[in-house]
Amino acid sequence: MAASPIVLIAGTTAEAQQYCRETGLQPRDVIYAANPATLHGLRRPAVVRVGSWQQRPDLADIEAALTARST
Q: HSE (CB half, 13 Å, CA atoms) of 6?
């Protein structure tokens, strides 16, 4: 069984890149939630929230997309 994809919700791409540097992950190892459409087709992703993620204007839409796709 393949590992769950890692969805990274960050306030900015710079925060996402910093998270990858600090954890040793490559940007290709995570899916940056740039917008809700980025999450299309994902099944049960692991979600990591970093930086100023709570300030994203599209946060409710991203959370809704994650909820819809995890069932």
A: 15
User: 35-44: which pairs have CB atoms within 8 A and are 24 or more residues apart?
Assistant: 35/61, 35/62, 36/61, 36/62, 36/64, 36/65, 39/7, 39/65, 39/66, 39/69, 40/65, 40/69, 41/69, 42/5, 42/7, 42/69, 43/4, 43/69, 43/70, 44/4, 44/70
Q: Is 37 helix (H, G, I), strand (E, B) or coil?
A: helix
Residues 6+ apart with CB under 8 A from 55: 11
Mean pLDDT by 10 residues, the chain (71 residues): 82 95 91 93 91 97 83 50
